[in-house]
Design brief:
571 residues, alpha/beta, Glucose Oxidase, domain 1, Enzyme I, Chain A, domain 2, TIM Barrel, 3 domains, eight-stranded mixed β-sheet, eight-stranded parallel β-barrel, 22 helices, 16 strands, globular
Length: 571
């Protein structure tokens, strides 16, 4: 009799193979007094260097196989191993308390892990996972333990683990590792993000897979439904093999749409664009037939390093993207950092509510030199393709006007220097704050376009931190209030002859797509792997009929009622 374990669908697909339970080595740490702290310091420094060497190898492999932004995870790990707050604290403990290196490292790293885990937001909690990963790597060398190497697995298997660290995930060879399931984690964890890039089916957050699945058991990881089937019956095996075949057939059908325009059943065209983090993501964008880049998150240029990127460095990155898109629109968001996304070298103050704090355009308008450098790089790159500039987190017209004035000043300065700048540069804003959505008619007169950032718009409108499990039920993309705000933004844009897009997760959601088409959204920007399924879905929908569906949805009482309306329409 099979057993079904439910979790979170982290990466689409179906894997059928024998389980390989990844067991943690035993990190037994005895605290001992030492007579020669200098020798102990040397042991610690040697272990640090070995760990750095390993991480550099993993980083280079990740860069080559997964792209620049995934390699940034290991650049961040290397920064942890060079962070004086951590390293010096361990050295001080060895010197002052005269204890062995492993005991000092364990105590200091545990303190940092506990501090980050107790923070409210998901990004900071991920930092705890980073510290745990790198400190275990160093501890392994101090204790003489063999570092587990998933890269050595050479038969088809499904990995079962409490959690997979970024280092673990980067070593997975998709030829043999057919999928994985973990006790903990969510869709935003590093391992989930990387598994989607590698197209390895994954189910995370099951709570019990390591306890319930012995090594060698045949299991099915259903990354479409978020389920793990343990010891399936012959009938179940056949059913899932059919489900896998259907999914692969579906993917083959989607692949035929790569070079097609995105057109609804009744001939309406919308633009399907991709969200990217670095120029390395362009391969996936082009392979999936994106009609543009709807969101280039420039913060990856600033992260995983110990100084600000230069104007030249930024210019080269932006230029690469606009040139490779060959005239297709590329919307580049100015720096959206601060609060929940830290840059150690900026030394920003800690905040109680980072999502509502000193971040994005607020930071840029105060740290004007950082902003000017980016604006100059963007303006220079605009001469090489169809570049559009987007300001994030705009809450007031004053902020928009100040940002636009700075852009105009830098444009004039570059032209005086004889530098080419595009004459047709569009400037828009992200609509992610309810006040901006409500006043969209005022903003529409002063921008060229809107891009709705639903990830933040939903949590701000519902007053519910989407990373807080206790209120996550209020993170409701289909709530009538959210649909009404989106409607206000689209109508305000169209009234002024401007276009409105969306770059939040909602843009690629199959329940949301009919509603957004009905509301008249012009551009949908999503992860590259969602583009072909969305194009296929839209080709079967009639935009004219959907306007009535959207009207009904905005008059519904609850998110559930809206979902039922869409499901009924789809039948």
């Amino acid at each position: 009799m099979s057993n079904k374990i439910s979790g979170i669908a982290a990466s689409a697909g179906i894997a059928i193979a024998k389980a390989f339970v990844l067991e943690e080595p035993e990190y037994t740490i005895d605290s001992k007094k030492v007579e020669d702290p200098a020798a102990e310091l040397k042991r610690f420094e040697d272990a640090l260097e070995k760990a750095k060497g390993e991480l550099n190898v993993i980083k280079d492999k990740a860069k080559e196989e997964l792209g620049e932004d995934k390699a940034e995870i290991f650049a961040a790990h290397l920064l942890v191993l060079s962070d004086p707050e951590l390293v010096d604290a361990v050295k001080d403990k060895i010197n002052n308390d005269q204890v062995n290196a492993e005991s000092a490292l364990d105590e200091v790293s545990s303190m940092f892990i506990s501090m980050f885990e107790n923070m409210d937001n998901e990004y900071m909690k991920e930092r705890a996972a980073d510290i745990r990963d790198v400190s275990k790597r160093v501890l392994g060398h101090l204790l003489g333990l063999e570092t587990r190497s998933l890269a050595m697995i050479d038969e088809e298997t499904v990995i079962i683990a409490e959690d997979l660290t970024p280092s673990d995930t980067a070593q997975l060879n998709p030829t043999y590792i057919k999928g994985f399931a973990t006790d903990i984690g969510g869709r935003t964890s590093h391992s989930a993000i990387m598994s989607r890039s590698m197209e390895i089916p994954a189910v995370v957050g099951t709570k019990t897979v390591t306890k319930d699945i012995p090594s060698g058991t045949t299991i099915i990881v259903d990354g479409l439904a978020g389920e793990v089937i343990v010891d399936p019956t012959e009938d179940e095996l056949q059913a899932y093999k059919q489900k896998l075949a259907d999914y692969q057939e579906q993917k083959a059908e989607w692949a035929k749409l790569v070079n097609e325009a995105t057109t609804t059943k009744d001939g309406a065209h919308v633009e399907l664009a991709a969200n990217i983090g670095t120029p390395n993501d362009l391969t996936g964008v082009l392979n999936n037939g994106a009609e543009g880049i709807g969101l280039y998150r420039t913060e990856f240029l600033y992260m995983g390093r110990d100084n600000l990127p230069s104007e030249e460095e930024q210019f080269e990155a932006y230029k690469t993207v606009v040139e490779k898109m060959e005239g297709k629109p590329v919307v580049i968001r100015t720096l959206d950092i601060g609060g929940d996304k830290e840059l150690p070298y900026l030394d920003l103050p800690k905040e109680l509510n980072p999502f509502l704090g000193f971040r994005a355009i607020r930071l840029c308008l105060e740290e004007k030199e950082i902003f000017r450098t980016q604006l100059r790089a963007l303006l220079r790159a605009s001469a090489f393709g169809n570049l559009k500039i987007m300001f994030p987190m705009i809450a007031s017209l004053e902020e928009l006007r100040e940002a636009k004035n700075m852009l105009e000043t830098e444009k004039s300065q570059l032209q005086k220097e004889g530098v080419s700048v595009s004459d047709e540069l569009e400037v828009g804003i992200m609509v992610e704050i309810p006040s901006t959505a409500v006043a969209a008619d005022l903003f529409a007169k002063e921008v060229d376009f809107f891009s709705i950032g639903t990830n933040d718009l939903i949590q701000y409108t519902m007053a519910a931190d989407r990373m807080n499990e206790r209120v996550s039920y209020l993170y409701q993309p289909y709530h009538p209030a959210i649909l009404r705000l989106i409607n206000m933004v689209i109508n305000a844009a169209h009234k002024e002859g401007k276009w409105a897009g969306m770059c939040g997760e909602m843009a690629g959601d199959e329940i949301a797509i009919p509603l957004l088409l009905g509301l008249g959204l012009d551009e949908f920007s999503m992860s590259a792997t969602s583009i072909l399924p969305a194009r296929s879905q839209m080709s079967k929908l009639s935009k004219a009929d959907l306007a009535t569906l959207a009207e009904k949805a905005m008059m519904a009482g609850t998110s559930e009622e809206v979902q039922k309306l869409v499901e009924t329409y789809n039948q």
